[in-house]
Design a protein that fits this description.
The protein has 724 residues and is α/β, with parallel strands linked by helices. The protein contains 26 helices and 21 strands.
């Protein structure tokens, strides 16, 4: 057993180990050593309270400004309210039935305070926080950190930062450092001037000064970048060794017939990206390409032309979509675009045509059987579906699946796309699409096994979208005006979306109650909101609901009627986030918009402005002006540039979320590496990793590095990366 694999129970004691495991998922020495401080405080330095994020567990260093006990009205008990300050902003600490603490929590004292940031009466607070006071001579914490940097760790409600710090102290003193393996090759460390791993781990947790901290972080960034790039380099090497069937469409075939019927000209971007894809399809090695672009840039059309080229060349193509609504929308729009070219073998169908099959998990038995038969006989050249495409019973004609298109890659793991590719006798070509623009460094880190194409040009005829934040509590008249604007758009013959974070059925209500960790009301729900709108500001309009728990036929019926203009207002969850195309919908109101991410809001508003009329997106929120949530909404309202918004989103969500979603959904290994700020490290690590893997593909001469692939990247995640 390596030093980092030792269980914490042996090294830090049972109670501490149990708390770290239960509340922070830290089980081994490596887990705790890689749980790095979020920041460092210096004695006398107060934490900026302006930057606290709602619902996050924080540890702040602050000074007590006032303290008072307030009896409850009409019942027993009291609450102790303490106000702490950083000299500019204030934060309230609330202790229930703990009046005795007023004697030690006196104005003027300074300490560390840890808890979950909540809101009560529109004032930020920590309820029943843990704390350590630091300004008394007999305070052990003050003596321990006198003259040193104080590490502040990512913490949990039951495990504040200083308890983690004490566990780290115990670990640093008990670990057998001679057994610590270093994953970076010695020549790489020497050439890059990097610390040995032992020194880096000790200095990241207990730096004597900022210089030691920076040196440790520089080394640990290389660990994360290099190990991940080695995994991706192995994947690229394995892919390049495979052979695929070249797919070259014939002249005057299905693709040419489709192009001849297009009522518009492809944009320069669409033509350029299509040329890159067709060149890849013609090669004897499988294509691995990421197609990313703005909402509405025409990615689906580019993907369809690639699928038609493969069908022309005698193979079949599959498109994997994350939701049934999106799969149905793709199927409907592709069939409409192709016309009689999608009706091969049917009365009136073109001789050059094929069929487009739809396969989802909740289809009826007869429809499913028909789709599977069309696939296995080859009558359907293209199949569009959800995870149902991955199931064992799905077979392709002569196992000749030529192209896999994965839409919204961030909704799928590597395992899922590979499960579909495994249905082919020879490795199929792969086209991965995302409508969430990704900064170049993110693409390099997350999708290092894929070539990248970007569509940054909107087709002619797309209308601009105006976005406004509606402060529902501060200015209720703005919300009234928002509903008036919806009515005006409907009166002009257009349609509207109203988006809510929640469904509002019994199961959803139960989950909302379980998740409630503060006094904020539950997120607004589709079912409740639709009812209130029908009784109130949208009375008389044709309002329908759409959410993920509806029966498939019911969802499809609502979308068909909305697309046909028979529904004025669609109140929905984020099932309409991607792929839904109703050009007549011109206005969207996103309720509780602060509960959505930046990229999600950008995706949502892309559902309007898809026709000739301008689009309007209203972001309704009760969060106060100046709060982090409002600043996030203001950023969305300020730009339509998806690449700029993705940078903002990434800065706020941290890279781990992006990497975890993009690859396998498990916990990310990135803790100190920033894919936005460390571009040079990532590029250099990619170069070094490629050279190492080229010389030693199985890492037989680098056992420490091979072990790091299992520990730093995570065994489960490495399995995902190595498939393909």
């Amino acid at each position: 057993m390596s030093a980092l694999d030792q269980p914490l129970k042996r090294l830090v004691g049972g109670p501490s180990a149990k708390a770290l495991a239960d509340h922070l998922d830290l089980h081994t020495a490596g887990d705790l050593l890689h749980h790095y401080p979020r920041r460092y405080a210096e004695r006398g330095e107060l934490t900026s309270l302006d930057d606290l994020v709602l619902d996050e567990h924080v540890t702040v260093m602050a000074r007590i400004e006032e303290s008072r006990v307030i009896p409850f009205q009409g019942r027993k008990g009291d609450r102790l309210e303490v106000v702490v300050t950083d000299g500019r902003s204030r934060l309230r600490l609330t202790f229930f039935n703990q009046a005795r603490r007023v004697h030690e929590l006196r104005p003027g004292r300074q300490g560390l305070f840890a808890g979950k940031v909540g809101v009560f009466n529109r004032v930020r607070q920590l309820a029943n926080p843990e704390y350590e006071l630091m300004d008394e001579e007999d305070t052990g914490l003050a003596r321990e950190f006198a003259g040193r940097l104080i590490p502040v760790y990512p913490a949990a409600a039951k495990v504040p930062s200083w308890r983690i710090s004490k566990a780290v102290d115990a670990l640093l003193g008990s670990l057998d450092w001679d057994e610590l393996a270093d994953p970076l090759p010695e020549e790489l460390r020497a050439g890059r001037g990097l610390l040995p791993l032992r020194d880096a781990l000790q200095q990241i947790h207990r730096p004597a000064d900022q210089a030691e901290c920076h040196a440790a972080r520089a080394r640990l960034k290389w660990d994360e970048a290099f190990v991940l790039q080695v995994a991706l380099a192995q994947r690229r090497a394995a892919d390049s060794a495979q052979t695929a069937t070249p797919r070259v469409p014939g002249r005057d075939g299905l693709l040419d017939a489709f192009d001849a019927r297009l009522p518009f000209t492809l944009t320069d971007g669409q033509q350029k990206v299509s040329a890159e894809i067709f060149a890849d399809l013609a090669r004897e090695h499988p294509m691995h390409r990421l197609l990313q672009g703005e909402v509405g840039s025409g990615k689906t059309l580019v993907a369809l032309r690639a699928m038609l080229a493969v069908v022309d060349a005698g193979g079949q193509a599959a498109m994997l979509a994350p939701t049934e609504v999106l799969a149905q929308q793709h199927h409907r729009s592709i069939v409409e675009m192709m016309g009689d070219l999608a009706e091969a073998g049917l009365l009136g169908g073109s001789e050059l045509g094929t069929r487009i099959a739809l396969l989802t998990g909740s289809m009826g038995v007869a429809a499913r059987r028909r789709a599977l038969l069309d696939l296995v006989t080859g009558d359907a050249g293209i199949v569009i579906g959800t995870h149902a495409l991955i199931e064992d019973g799905v077979r392709f004609h002569q196992d000749d699946l030529g192209l896999v298109v994965v839409d919204e890659q961030h909704r799928f793991g590597v395992e899922q796309r590979d499960a579909l590719r495994a249905k082919a006798a020879r490795p199929p070509h792969l086209l991965v699409m995302t409508a969430t623009p990704i900064p170049r460094t993110v693409a390099m880190t997350v999708f290092g096994d894929l070539e990248t194409s970007v569509l940054d040009q909107l087709p002619a005829g797309r209308s601009p979208i105006a976005t406004h934040v509606v402060p529902a509590l501060e200015k209720p008249n703005f919300l009234t005006r928002a509903w008036e604007r919806v009515r005006e758009e409907v009166a002009a013959g257009h349609q509207a979306y109203v988006v809510c974070p929640r469904i509002g059925d019994e199961e959803d209500d139960r989950k909302a109650k379980q998740a409630a960790g503060d006094d904020r009301r539950p997120p607004l729900a589709v079912l409740d909101t639709a009812e209130k709108l029908l009784r109130g500001p949208l009375a008389g309009l044709r309002v329908e609901v759409l959410h993920g728990r509806m029966a498939p036929d019911a969802k499809d019926d609502v979308m068909r009627r909305f697309t046909a203009g028979q529904v004025d207002v669609l109140v929905a969850t984020t099932v309409i986030e991607v792929g839904v195309n109703v050009p007549n919908a011109t206005v969207m109101a996103v309720l509780d918009a602060d509960r959505f991410g930046v990229s999600q809001l950008h995706q949502l508003r892309g559902r309007v402005g898809r026709g000739s009329a301008p689009g309007l997106c209203l972001l309704v929120s009760e969060m106060p002006d100046g709060s982090p949530a409002r600043r996030r909404l203001d950023a969305v309202a300020a730009t339509l540039d998806g690449f700029e918004l993705s940078r903002i989103d990434l800065e706020q969500r941290r890279e781990g979320d992006v990497l975890g979603q993009a690859q396998s959904g498990v916990r990310s290994s990135l803790r100190v590496l920033s894919v936005l700020e460390d571009e040079e490290v990532i590029a250099a690590a990619r170069e070094e990793a490629t050279a190492v893997v080229a010389a030693d593909p199985r890492l037989e001469g680098h056992p420490e590095l091979a072990a790091a692939l299992r520990s730093l990247v995570d065994e489960e995640r490495a399995d995902f990366l190595e498939k393909g």
